[in-house]
Amino acid sequence: MSRTVLYSKRVEAFQLLSIPAGMLAITFLVLLIAEGSYISCVVLAGGLIWLVPNLYFAAKIFSGDRAKITPELMLKNFYQAEVIKLTLCATLFIATVKFLSVAIVPLLIGFALAQVTFWISPILLNKVKRLIKE
User: Fold this and answer.
1) For labeling, which of 8, 60, 99, 122 is most exposed (least CB within 10 Å)?
2) Backbone angles phi, psi at 102, to 5 degrees
3) What digits encode the pLDDT tens for the residues 42-89?
4) How many CB atoms lie within 10 A of CB 82?
5) pTM across the whole model
6) Is the separation of the CB atoms in 7 and 68 below 8 Å?
């Protein structure tokens, strides 16, 4: 994989992650006005529990010089990054619930909102790219 292709894929990965991050910011502000600081902060924490491990995963997968990497090594790196991402996610959930004593439902709603937004972000990104080209 050439450096140019790697760079464009890295940019695309972080663009995909910026859509859930933006949705979390909007949700935080709306909930801050409508519900108050506690619920908005808990929902934001749930979203950040999703966002931080995914940022790590994207950075790990698209880091370094991939020009000479074998497919087997690339697959190994992918699996290692995924295991670390899932471990980090579980650790953040446990630490947040244990040490911050937050309500579970808003925390899970924030996490789910970020995940669902990430699932639909490729559709949104493609529509934006088509609008720019027109």
Assistant:
1) 99
2) -100, 165
3) 999 999 999 999 999 988 888 766 667 788 888 888 999 999 999 999
4) 14
5) 0.84
6) no
